[in-house]
Amino acid sequence: MVDEKTRLAIEKIRTEWKKGDDQRDAGLPLEIPEVKRINNIAYGPDPKWNLLDIYLPQKSEGKIPIIINIHGGGWCYGTKETYQFYGLGLARRGFAFINANYRLAPEVVFPAELDDVNRYIHWVAEHAAEYHLDTNNVFLVGDSAGGQMAEQYTAILKNSSYRKKFGYKMPQLEFRAVALNSAAVFLLDPGILDPGIIGDAVKGYFTDEILANKRELLDTEKYITADYLPTYISTATEDFIRDSSIKFDGFLTAKGVKHIFWEYGDRENPRPHVFLINQKDQIAQQANDDEIEFFKQFIVHS
């Protein structure tokens, strides 16, 4: 049972962030000529939350490389609709974009959201042929809380002992790289789970009981090895968890993991946390281009 302080914090996030997202995306088209979209495909038993969309570039020859998205929202907010415009933009750049919902806190606690991510990743593996998707060229993207899950799922993919702790099976997909945008990495560092209002809200997912009994599972960096996926790290000048991305850049350097680090914005043109999903922002468009160019380096042609 979630306490009143946590419940109110989550309600405030859902109201205020939704208002901001709607203002940001006002007037953007739900359909663009370069992309075919297929909506509301069930990938699991929950009729509301186990749904995904697929966005496919209209002009493609052969199988289409795949981007699987894990959306952000403080583990308690966000839907595939929030990310549809960002997804259409990446699909326009030549990739199939998998845009999924997952269950949210406080209705579920850790690791139920990651369980849903695992479920829809396996769905992609099982249904790829129906949509001409290239299972040999798969890329993972996550931002903010979704970035934390993308970091964690990549560690699970590349470390069998960590994977065993979650009880997950390897999906029949060849992941080539991961992008972590304003990601909540180093989750157990002081300040990540408790920066202001988000700190109250995240108690809905990372409850005191979870932190007491499953803390080991949250120590993702402990399980990252030199064979971690090539990683694109992005942050921005006004990103409230910017320092975590900077630290992760150094961490991957020390591990010998191939990666690139970008910080967007400057004093005259500051950019906030997860600015890159704003399809009206030219700097965000540049960030999206940079991310896609990073991925293209790792496409394997059969």
What does this structure look like?
By secondary structure, the chain is an alpha/beta fold. The protein is about 35% helix and about 20% strand. The chain is built from 10 helices and 8 strands. It has an 8-stranded mixed β-sheet, with helices on both faces. α4 (about 145-160) packs across α5. The longest helix is centred in the first third of the chain and has 22 residues, at about 5-25. The N and C termini lie far apart (about 50 Å).
Question: What is the strand and helix layout of this fold?
Answer:
Blueprint: H1 4-25, E1 35-42, E2 51-57, E3 64-70, H2 84-92, E4 96-100, H3 112-127, E5 133-143, H4 145-158, H5 160-166, E6 175-181, H6 197-202, H7 208-213, H8 215-218, E7 231-236, H9 242-255, E8 259-264, H10 282-296
In short:
The chain has helices at 4-25, 84-92, 112-127, 145-158, 160-166, 197-202, 208-213, 215-218, 242-255, 282-296; strands at residues 35-42, 51-57, 64-70, 96-100, 133-143, 175-181, 231-236, 259-264. The protein is an alpha/beta fold and 302 residues long.
Mean pLDDT: 96
Distance between the termini: 52 Å
Helix content percent band: 25-40%
Unreliable sequence segments = none
List key phrases describing it.
302 residues, alpha/beta, 8-stranded mixed β-sheet, 8 strands, globular
